[in-house]
Write a structure and sequence with these properties.
Layout lengths: L33 H9 L4 H9 L5 H7 L11 E9 L2 E8 L7
Antiparallel strand pairs: 1-2
Length: about 100
């Protein structure tokens, strides 16, 4: 490679960099099936966080009633992740639970 040539590399998704530090760059994530998105996102999280993500576990009404006053129901919202974030020099996936798709 000469001094006038540049070497360009593309960031690889988390699934392709198993031995490297995780990256928050997940190109085309929105085009993948939900199960594949979930697998990519849970690959580098603590074991304790995997169960609710892998099972889609919901909050029982009894638990919600102890967490807040005047609980009457549980409202479900999609749990999404925002990609391409770096916090304190570390790539992170930011969880977001919103009803507006353009926010994520």
């Amino acid at each position: 490679m000469t001094s006038t040539q540049t070497h360009r590399t593309q960031a690889q998704p988390v699934a392709e960099k198993r031995d490297a530090a995780p990256t928050s760059r997940l190109p085309g994530l929105h085009r993948k099936p939900v199960a594949e998105r979930r697998a990519l996102c849970t690959e580098h999280v603590d074991e304790a966080l995997r169960f609710p993500l892998e099972t889609g576990a919901t909050l029982p009404l009894e638990v919600a009633d102890r967490m807040s006053e005047n609980v009457i129901a549980i409202q479900g919202l999609p749990l999404s992740v925002a990609t391409n974030f770096r916090v304190a020099g570390r790539d992170v996936l930011v969880p977001m639970s919103v009803e507006e798709p353009s926010v994520v």
